Amino acid sequence: MHPWIADRTTSFDSSGIRKVFDLAAKLKDPINLSIGQPDFDVPEVIQDATVDAIRSGKNAYSPTQGIAPLRERLLAEVRAKYPGQDRDVFISSGTSGGLVLSMLSMINPGDEVIFLDPYFVMYPALVRLCGGVPVKVNSYPDFRLDPAKIEAAITPKTKMILVNSPANPTGVTATEDDLRDVADLAAKHNVALLSDEIYSRFYYDGDFASPASHNPDTIVIDGFSKSHAMTGWRVGYVHGPPEIISTMLKIQQYSFVCSPQPAQWGALRAMEVSLDGHIDDYRRKRDFMVQQLSPHFELTSPGGAFYLFPKAPAGETGSAFVERAIQDGVLIIPGNIFSDQDSHFRISFAADDETLRRGAERLIKLAGDNSCSIC
């Protein structure tokens, strides 16, 4: 290792997802079921609002906490959703920026952070970057948020419980009862509760639930990247106890500075855009993929997001199956990128219908099943 490189960078590897994306660039016309972002474009009214902001000179730094109209709109929404709670909000540089600032604000070296396995790839890396200790709670085979397992993982060194519902990579949604119990656990043990809610609008069965409804000290991270296809725009937001938010802002001043101002004006317009049509479309895509694949793969039907996390065929690791799939022109993500286990793989159904049909057909054939109904 080069002598100038900091020791902290050796505690985690580069994202395996990026490696798959690099591979995708080398394939000719792959069936791409790997990308974790919507397949629709940013709605034109949002684009127009952003262009208007650029052309009217709103190109400088914004206040670190974000432009006032967006913050005020978000704060009104948060206060209506959580009446009586003392919560503040600021605009982060994407939800990833919110995660970074959360960890830097609350995690000391040696602190333990509990989250489910499988997990979003960034979680263990960020915990280690801060000198913390990732504590992964096995949620196989159904990927449920089990309060009993969470409680069993709590030690005197536990500083934070991190929940993600709907979850990446499984798409599984936690029940309100389980979220309530975990919220109560965090309060009982005086542990920070961080809720990653970036997929909150991609919720297909029932109503979205947040642990913040049951624990007013919950720190919530959300944003516009997934819901409005604004992944490259870097506009997220965080709300929670004012002292925590103030600390995160202090760090943002010396790191991200602010979210891009023109994109914030686009996000303000995005709050007026209905997503119902897109959500209905993704529910239909979910139903199609579950219907096609469930007879051939062991999988849990996702209640949200746009992912499936099937188990590889018997006798085969997830990474070995993914390698065969990629050789056959189907881009999927090996499950061991998101997990200590190498038994599953991730599919994104954020793709057009024909791509999903072709992808399902190829995967079923790779599973060795010749009874495919769409082949």
Tell me what the structure shows.
The protein starts with 15 loop residues before the first helix and ends in a 9-residue tail after the last helix. It has helices at 16-24, 44-55, 68-81, 94-106, 122-129, 147-153, 176-188, 242-253, 261-270, 276-293, 318-327, 353-366, and strands at residues 31-32, 88-92, 112-117, 133-138, 158-164, 192-196, 219-223, 236-240, 307-308, 330-331, 333-334, 345-348. The chain is built from 12 helices and 12 strands. The protein has 2 domains: 7-42 and 275-366, Aspartate Aminotransferase, domain 1; 60-270, Aspartate Aminotransferase, domain 2. Helix 4 (94-106) runs parallel beside helix 5 and helix 4 crosses helix 8. It has 375 residues and is an alpha/beta fold. It is globular. It has a 7-stranded mixed beta sheet, sandwiched between helices. The chain has a 3-stranded antiparallel beta sheet with strand order 9-12-11. Belongs to the class-I pyridoxal-phosphate-dependent aminotransferase family. One of its GO terms (molecular function) is transaminase activity. Keywords: Aminotransferase, Pyridoxal phosphate, Transferase. Residues 29-363 form the Aminotransferase class I/classII large domain. This is Aminotransferase.
